Amino acid sequence: MGIPIIDFTGLDLEEGKPLGDKEQSLINDVGSQIVDAFRTVGFCYLKNHGIPSALIEAYRKTSRDFFEQPVEYKQKYARPQDTNFGWVALERERLSPERPGDYKEAFNFNPADDNKSWPDRIPEFQSLSHELFQQCTKLSFRIFDALSTSLELKERSFLRDCHKNMGKKSNATTLRSLFYPRITPDSNIKSGQVRCGEHSDYGSITLLFQDDVGGLEVRGLDGIYIPANPLPDTVLINIGDLMQRWTADKLIATKHRVLIPEEELKKCQCRQSFAFFVHPDDDCTIICLDGSNKYEPITSKDYLDYRFSFTY
Ligand SMILES: O=C(O)CCC(=O)C(=O)O
Ligand SMILES: [Fe+2]
C-alpha cells in the first residue's frame, strides 16, 4: 500500500465554532482518511495545507546558508544539552542504535528558547524560523481537530487543548532544519552509516518538508521499506510513539530512514528537509484514549525524557 495524498482544502474551521452539516461532513471525511493512513502505512501527504511555499523556500535557503558556513563558525551556535536551540553537529546523533552516528547536521528551534544569539551571518534565520514555527503550529491544530473528530474524542478540541503551549517553555515542540551533506570520497563513510538511521518519531505528530532530492523510506506493514518520494507542495505527516501509546496502538508510529544514495549523481547532492516535531504540553498526562489502560499513564515530559535518553 502506498502513502495516500489527502486534500486539506476547506479545513480551517474556527476553534470552538459549531459546525454546519457541510463542514461536519468534510472534517469527518478528511479525519477518517488521516486515521486510515495512520492505522496502516503511518504516513500521509497533505496537499493544500495552507503554508505558503515562498516561506518554505526562504527558510530552506536561509538554513542552507547557515549549514554551508565553516564548522568553527557553526560550533559557536552548538545546541547546549538542556535547551532546544542551536546546531547539532555531523554524526552527533544516532537514530538507530545499531549504526554509526547519522551523517547529518541539524538546527533546532523552539521560540521559548530564543534568548541566545543567532548566527550573525544569516540575517533572516530568526524571523523565518519564528514564522514557520507559527505556521506549523496552526496546521498542527487543524490536523488535531480532524484527528479528534475521527477518533471520536469528547471534543473536537481535545487534542488541540493538550498542545495549547506549543512554542512556550512548558512544551517540547521543535522545528528542526536538517542538512545531509554531499558524499564525496573524503567523507569516509563508515560501514553501516546512513543519513538517518531507522527510527520512529517520539512525540504526537511530525510534519516533514522534503526537498526534491528524495531518499526518505518508510517501513510498510510487511517490513519492507518503500520510498516516500518528495511531492511538490505537500507536507508529509506521521505520528510518533507517544501518539501510538495514547491511542493504545490503534495508530502506528512507522519506522523510517534515509540511506546514503547509491547512484553517484545523487551522492554528490546535499539533501535538506525540515521536521516539525509536535509534543503535548509537558504536564499533559497520556492516558489511553480508548479507556483500555493498555499502558500506564505517564506525563508527556517523562515519556520524552525516557525516549531521548537513547539517542545521545
Ligand atoms: O530527513 C528526513 O526526510 C527524515 C528525518 C527524520 O525522520 C527525523 O529527523 O526524524
Ligand atoms: Fe523521523
From TrEMBL:
<dbReference type="Pfam" id="PF03171">
    <property type="entry name" value="2OG-FeII_Oxy"/>
</dbReference>
<feature type="domain" description="Fe2OG dioxygenase">
    <location>
        <begin position="171"/>
        <end position="280"/>
    </location>
</feature>
<protein>
    <recommendedName>
        <fullName>Fe2OG dioxygenase domain-containing protein</fullName>
    </recommendedName>
</protein>
<keyword id="KW-0479">Metal-binding</keyword>
<comment type="similarity">
    <text>Belongs to the iron/ascorbate-dependent oxidoreductase family.</text>
</comment>
<dbReference type="GO" id="GO:0046872">
    <property type="term" value="F:metal ion binding"/>
</dbReference>
<dbReference type="InterPro" id="IPR027443">
    <property type="entry name" value="IPNS-like_sf"/>
</dbReference>
<dbReference type="InterPro" id="IPR050231">
    <property type="entry name" value="Iron_ascorbate_oxido_reductase"/>
</dbReference>
<dbReference type="Pfam" id="PF14226">
    <property type="entry name" value="DIOX_N"/>
</dbReference>
<dbReference type="InterPro" id="IPR005123">
    <property type="entry name" value="Oxoglu/Fe-dep_dioxygenase_dom"/>
</dbReference>
<dbReference type="InterPro" id="IPR044861">
    <property type="entry name" value="IPNS-like_FE2OG_OXY"/>
</dbReference>
<dbReference type="GO" id="GO:0016491">
    <property type="term" value="F:oxidoreductase activity"/>
</dbReference>
<dbReference type="InterPro" id="IPR026992">
    <property type="entry name" value="DIOX_N"/>
</dbReference>
<keyword id="KW-0560">Oxidoreductase</keyword>
<keyword id="KW-0408">Iron</keyword>
